[in-house]
Automatic annotation (TrEMBL):
Database matches in Pfam families: F420H2_quin_red
Lineage: Bacteria, Bacillati, Actinomycetota, Actinomycetes, Streptosporangiales
Organism: Actinoallomurus bryophytorum
Name under which the protein is recorded: Deazaflavin-dependent oxidoreductase (Nitroreductase family)
Coiled coil feature spans: none
Gene3D superfamilies: Electron Transport, Fmn-binding Protein, Chain A
Molecular function via GO: oxidoreductase activity
InterPro entries: F420H2_quin_Rdtase, Split_barrel_FMN-bd
Superkingdom of the organism of origin: Bacteria
Length: 150
């Protein structure tokens, strides 16, 4: 049995998931953003080599955020070590720094993220939607890393 303190992680590696990520990454690399999609480049914490994954860039109250709907994934662990990375859309590259938010700072960000992308990421939130109470969003916050970009 898994310990309660283990970080939440969803590894989606079925055919549909891989196909969807390839399509979104491919379109974004061509310069076509799907509702804010970007390709995240972050240095591997052990190899130092660039690792990539498609992400949704959330703009909320004049600030920008990356939310990890699948939990404490490899890109999240790499971001914690590197402190930043690059966002790509077509030929445009933006270098950024990132600061991870504390759990108590996440409810409004998670709500905004779910309002924008629940159709895409709702399955990773176990029935929690944008209409959830602050208390419920605070309860699930430890399982959803959020980074503010600078």
């Amino acid at each position: 049995m898994a310990a309660e303190s283990e970080p939440r992680l969803i590894v989606g590696n079925n055919l549909l998931d891989r196909s969807t990520r390839k399509v979104v990454s491919g379109l974004t690399r061509m310069g076509i953003s799907l509702l804010g999609s970007r390709v995240l480049y972050v240095r591997g914490r052990k190899s130092g080599e660039w690792r990539t994954t498609p992400v949704n860039l959330l703009k909320y109250e004049g600030k920008r955020y990356l939310v990890a709907p699948r939990g404490h994934t490899q890109w999240v662990r790499n971001m914690r070590v590197s402190g930043g990375g690059e966002l790509h859309i077509g030929r445009r590259v933006e270098v950024f720094t990132a600061t991870e938010l504390a759990d108590e700072e996440k409810p409004d960000i998670l709500r905004a993220y779910l309002k924008r992308w629940k159709f895409e990421v709702g399955m990773f939130f176990n029935g929690v939607g944008p209409d959830a109470s602050d208390e419920k969003l605070l309860e699930i916050a430890p399982g959803y890393p959020v980074f503010q970009l600078g």
